[in-house]
O-methyltransferase C-terminal domain-containing protein (Paspalum vaginatum), 291 residues
Amino acid sequence: MESIQEQHCTNQQAMLDAQLELWHSSIAFIKSMAFKSALELNIADAIHLLGGTATLAQISTRPGSTRPRYHASKSADDGDHVYGLTPASRLLVGTLSLTPILSLFLNNIFVSPFFDLGTWLQHELPAADLTLFEMSHRKAVWDVVGHDASMSLLFNTGMVADTHSLIDVAGGHGAAAQAIAKAFPHIECSVLDLAHVVASAPACTGLNYIVGDMFESIPPANAVFLKWVIHDWDDPQCVTILKNCKKAIPPRDVGEKEMRQEWGKIIYEAGFIDYKITPILGLRSFIELYP
């Protein structure tokens, strides 16, 4: 049985832990903004180009770097601190760098709407049919991207930053489709997207760009791939997209399985018979739909 003193110590520790949690919740954004600054200063690239380890002075002298403001208090016996890449920061360098997509997530355009989250949550459902982004910016994300050249470049670069598979519908500049077309020349690869996206896409051998709207129709294909698409739309719009996918894919006879989770409702309503969700990395999953 605990003594009164032990209970008192336990209660004190619980209170300290609770305060710590509140502090973390309140100022966690500082870590995100520090990370954003590190991306903008190309710190990981600088360390990588210097051989994997570097001092602050060496990092600041890399071509294209802005000399950072820093002050380190140290004794005369201390040498310069040496910094190296961690497993996480290694993902920010090289040809498979995640820097573009992470920079997109941390861009002011996408961060600022969260200051209005409390206001948005006070609306009666379905929040006047406006997303948080639309309520904050008075326009949809696609309108912002489509009318801002720098934002369009950041968005398209971010969407293909970690691409290793075919993006067919709303595939942007089609980096994934290019890779598949090169690896499997017997497969005809096409990218469907809006006119302004296709107009700025580079000419590629073995890849077809098709101007179209996924809400109207999708060209026939043996397989339709979507990446970073479905999560941007509400349920009725998702159903429309997936119904058009269903029309584009040749039918096959497969017994229907029991509906599961929220995605199941959308997928089955679109006319698909079965689906499989496979977690691949962090919060992302690969969804296979079977007609």
In short: The first strand starts at residue 53 and ends at 54. The CA atoms of residues 142 and 206 lie 28 Å apart. Residues 4-92 form a domain with the Arc Repressor Mutant, subunit A fold (CATH 1.10.10.10).
